[in-house]
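QA checklist item 7 of 12: single-chain prediction sanity check.
[x] sequence parsed
[x] length recorded as 510
[x] structure emitted
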Amino acid sequence: MSPAPVTGGEPTPQSTGPAPAAPRAGRADTASGQADAASGQAGVADGPTDAASGQASGRRRAAPAAPAARSGSGARAVTRVLDSDPLGGTVRRTVLPNGMRILTEAVPAMRSVTFGIWVGVGSRDEAPQLGGASHFLEHLLFKGTRKRSALDISAQIEAVGGETNAYTAKEYTCYYARVLDADLPLAIDVMCDAVADSVLAEADVETERGVILEEIAMHADEPGDEVHDLHMEVLYGDHPLGRLISGTAETITPMTRKQINSFYRRRYTPPVIVVAAAGNLDHATVVKQVREAFAGTPLGDAPAASPEPTRSPHAKVKHRPAATLVRPDDTEQAHLVLGGPALHRHDERRFALGVLNNVLGGGMSSRLFQQVREKRGLAYSVYSYTSQYAETGSFAVYAGCAPAKADEVLALIRQELADTAAHGITAEELRRGKGMLKGSLVLGLEDTGSRMSRLGKGELMHGDLMSVDELLRRIESVTLDEVNHIAATILTAPMSLAVVGPFDETAFQL
């Protein structure tokens, strides 16, 4: 869906505290690979497909089971306190008998609430012929239910000064609303209705098909975004992680309402759904209102079940051998991404990688920024980033420069990576890198949207929620040896190059 601008949606790869908003559907999950402070797991990111896609995601990690009980608004749920944080409020988690989880963080000092519904289904869960189905469905769920038209959904929230939006990623889809605390009951009712009971009218499917095709075309006209997708393609090939979140014109054009509805009803089930809310709220009241809002819908009437375990980190993803992929385009700049395989999001070394990422390309004081821009003026934008999924991940460097300077910029980037791998970083850089990571974590939790994202993404992607104090402790405990070992491991591996610009396809061959 995502009619909102991209700003604030999928943050720039330098960013480490994502807030909920609308990333470009075609964009690789670069932001989710950053420190990802809002998810409650510093230095992590996201990313399996069902059997229909031909890319099995492997067994999922065990999650706490809900009690055996009959579903429905009167059935028993289990609630526990996860955290009582001095930086915020009390975090509580309730597991409903049907396997749906509800997490809230009460922050009485705030006058707003962000309410989100996280579905553990994303573009990598699609069969090849259904590429883009998750994103297509995300558009359609705001087009009308049995109780509300599309206008009703938007008008009811906007009438109280609130906002709604949604976005699709590789491993999940998020729908959310931000309202004044007094209007939370309305937001719960509207959002639960939209996610659980959309009618997916044939006319709306055709309308949104045109919108999505325009979105795909718009994305292709933005080489600074397209080059990240190209790099995912050269890394992962035909694996679902290598495909566009938006799908392509070849998959979206023939997709039918029947296919989308089947995907919707088969995939959107309580065990893969996490409801998260943060702000001035009462947990028990939120649980009651969510159960009432879902009652009488396919999600409310679902049978007893346990929450779906998190995706397994043990599944194997075959990476392509290091290669160069050039997409010729008549652009003013050359857009370059150089990188290779790195850590999955459950890897304990992710904190050290987060520090290394900041030292190399995380800000204006970073090595790459200083060497490429400050000292030589060869590029306006240069940064490094990580993308992390359940069982794999990547590290990459982006630069945008004049086409005539592309070779020089690439040579500088390669040299800086090689020097870092060979000689490591300094104690001062370690201190600065950890400070950046800790600062982005805490500063990223200053609004209800970021706090809601931390709850939803932490539960859905990790099955738990680290306290802010524990995250800060984990970052501070990173040693110089750990960072230098990661640098020597990751930065010496063969790297793939993606390029968009006025070049021949055979340019830059490794």
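[x] summary fact logged: The first helix runs from residue 133 to 140.
[ ] second reviewer sign-off
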